[in-house]
């Protein structure tokens, strides 16, 4: 009888803890949402530039699309600096996020068609540096050391196979282009891992609810990967109708999710 009462008390205690945790997370989520609603106003210029750019991509109007492409990342810096000025984004993350967006801006410039070999490498280096800045934000809180080594080995094996599959899919580029594409793909997978590992630890090891801002980061990195695969396919294999729209729509969403996730999460 005492055992039954003790088990019942433990059940009630655990239920109350779960309820308190849910209430805390809900309250915290509402606070973040109410705060972020103010920051969203500073995304409006980015939204306007993005819609106009995609419109000209659909209409195959190259010159206005190129001009607006160069304006994308500068307009995305507005909410970043708004978050910093309101003391919500730390100075170190402001510097890293600025570096990521400046690198992306340079990559956007160099990858405006026609893309020569030299411009391709410059663009690739610019985006590689951009991803290093993003990785510097994500890695300190990745909690990768808490994931069992067998799972990490499985993830590394899966990413190796995916890298090989992507290399074949984009037409197996030769020489330095091929090597650069493989290294860049590995960087993208490192970004994915650094965003996914905290979600894995929270949900499967610590048994906590999934973090919404972390999910934004994951969506951003996955969309970035899709955008780059489409871009590489159109550059190395063959360009298809509306390929630019496909590349830029996924890229714009990716940058929006990444910046929003960093502002909310860090």
Structure, described:
The protein is mostly helical. It has 9 helices and no strands. The protein has helices at 2-40, 44-58, 62-85, 91-110, 117-138, 149-169, 175-205, 212-236, 243-265. α6 runs antiparallel to α7 (175-205). The longest helix is centred in the N-terminal third of the chain and has 39 residues, at 2-40. Mean pLDDT is 85; it is low at 1-29.
Write a concise keyword list for the protein shown above:
single chain; 266 residues; mainly alpha; 9 helices; 83% helix; disordered N terminus
Shape descriptor reads: globular
State Rg.
21 Å
Mean pLDDT: 85
Largest sheet: none
Distance between the termini: 49 Å
* Strand fraction: under 5%
- What series of H and E elements makes up the topology? HHHHHHHHH
Low-confidence residue ranges: 1-29
């Amino acid at each position: 009888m005492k055992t039954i009462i003790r088990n019942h008390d433990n059940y009630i205690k655990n239920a109350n803890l779960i309820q308190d945790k849910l209430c805390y997370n809900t309250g915290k989520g509402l606070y973040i949402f109410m705060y972020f609603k103010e920051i969203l106003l500073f995304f409006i210029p980015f939204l306007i530039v993005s819609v106009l750019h995609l419109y000209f991509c659909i209409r195959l109007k190259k010159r206005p699309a190129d001009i607006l492409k160069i304006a994308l990342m500068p307009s995305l810096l507005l909410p970043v600096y708004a978050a910093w000025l309101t003391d919500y984004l730390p100075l170190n993350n402001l510097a890293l996020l600025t570096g990521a967006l400046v690198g992306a801006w340079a990559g956007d410039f160099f990858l405006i068609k026609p893309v020569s070999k030299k411009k391709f490498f410059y663009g690739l280096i610019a985006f590689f540096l951009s991803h290093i800045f993003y990785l510097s934000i994500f890695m300190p809180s990745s909690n990768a050391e808490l994931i069992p080594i067998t799972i990490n080995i499985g993830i590394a094996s899966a990413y190796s196979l995916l890298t090989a599959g992507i290399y074949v899919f984009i037409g197996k580029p030769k020489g330095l282009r091929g090597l650069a594409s493989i290294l860049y793909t590995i960087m993208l997978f490192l970004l994915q891992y650094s965003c996914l590992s905290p979600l894995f630890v929270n949900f499967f090891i610590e048994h906590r609810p999934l973090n919404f801002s972390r999910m934004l980061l994951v969506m951003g990195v996955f969309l970035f990967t899709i955008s780059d695969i489409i871009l590489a396919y159109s550059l190395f294999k063959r360009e298809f109708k509306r390929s630019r729209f496909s590349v830029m729509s996924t890229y714009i969403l990716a940058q929006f999710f990444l910046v929003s996730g960093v502002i909310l999460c860090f």
